[in-house]
Specification:
Blueprint (H helix, E strand, L loop, with lengths): L4 E2 L12 E2 L4 E2 L12 E2 L4 E2 L12 E2 L4 E2 L12 E2 L4 E2 L12 E2 L4 E2 L12 E2 L4 E2 L12 E2 L4 E2 L12 E2 L4 E2 L12 E2 L16
Antiparallel strand pairs: 1-2, 3-4, 5-6, 7-8, 9-10, 11-12, 13-14, 15-16, 17-18
Amino acid sequence: CVAGKYLDETGKGLESDCKLCPEGKWSAQVGADQASNCIDCVAGKYSTRAGADAVGTCIDCVAGTYSTTAGADAVGTCIDCDAGKYSTTAGADANTACIDCVAGKYSTAAGADAVGTCIDCVAGTYSTTAGADAVGTCIDCDAGKYSSTEGSATASDCIECVAGKYSTAAGADANTACIDCVAGKFSTAAGADAIG
């Protein structure tokens, strides 16, 4: 039998008697005499071609996906990285190839293939959560504070309004949210969040 086929029955010898290696497998061996001569495509790859005669017929799962299945015979065995993660690796064989978006960013896209799919929390917010999958993980800076930095990863990135100013707005993205105390009032406290 030619490569990609095998013949496991005695008394037969015609090329038409040869059986194709199934999808998800391949064999470069000429004259294979058992199904076990057909080799699985490794995890992270698949093949839809029966009778494959070279390892090159095994196709990588695309970046943003992975497969733990050896001998996979369909692209459907490639699993998307979860939202909040991405992978730039084609042919990944484990979910460990999926990398968390860093704290201060989030991604709602499953199967993301680039770090650019991780979106910064907007100015005035922060997130301490790595691998965040929703904008809701971005937390407003408290009233009396602001942050003009996008992608902040800690509450300490929120800056207090200076003494003599206050802000009642949570999630402020600029020091212009800090308002002067009204005439006749003063405050020695930084980060004031109310008039009185």
